[in-house]
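Weekly structure sync, notes
Attendees: PL, DS, HV (note-taker this week)

Item 1: Glutamine amidotransferase
DS walked through the input record. Source organism listed as Pseudarthrobacter enclensis. Sequence as pasted into the shared doc:
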Amino acid sequence: MCRLFGLHAGSRPVHATFWLLDAPDSLSEQSRREPDGAGIGTFDDDGGPRVTKRPLAAWEDHAFAREARQLTSTTFLAHVRYASTGAHTMVNTHPFEQDGRLFAHNGAFHGLDRIDQRLEDLDVAGLVRGQTDSERLFALITAESRRADGDVGEGITRAVGWVAAQLPVLALNIIVTTATDLWALRYPATHPLYILERDPSAEPAPAAPLDARSHRIRSRSTELSVSRSVLFATEPMNHNPGWRPMAPGELVHVGPDLEVACTFPFPDQPKYLLTLADLEPSAAASQMS
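Item 1 (cont.): predicted structure, written out as tokens:
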């Protein structure tokens, strides 16, 4: 299945090289099992989004490695893709950008004709440039956020609530980010999503390196070793015992001050819950761990 990675480091831009390339279970390492594309989303100093993505596995993409070493941002969103809907093309590769926000998704749902009609009704069908269910879900979140006067949390709640009530759903694990805020959702229990609230001040002094086994890693992750950060990933990426699985239905918001707020705005499961047996064989294969 696709892998998600999100990082919020507060107001100070940092590198995410450790998590993208060097961690024991880095996103690059995970991409050896997810061959259909990879992308990194960041934000410039003025808050403008920047996306670098290609329809190649991250581990064999020199551009991914270069960007992972060079990019700095207050927030990061990265994704490695195992395609379930849509061809292996740039336009179908995550993350997606709309209204200055970035989005990535792990999961699948059916009823694309019905969500297309919903997007037409809300006058946002033009936001969808590719073939994926993921980009359609993002367009619905964008539409509902606009209708909620820019409240992204409310937009997520309305959009996911509509999909959960109207369409057959396997999983809607998502991350949405701006330069100052990040939202992550695990829904329902189908696929895991983990959160790590890392506070070096609560760790033994001096601040512990991200992975004490490697001086090379320690020297390249100095910023994050001494700074608070909140991370999200499809699976724990290193040996830190602080990784915890998000609960099914948990929507997490991380604000500019790194305060974490958790809500549960959805029913325990969608009205029409799909299983792997309900998917075509190729789509089912893309959703296996």
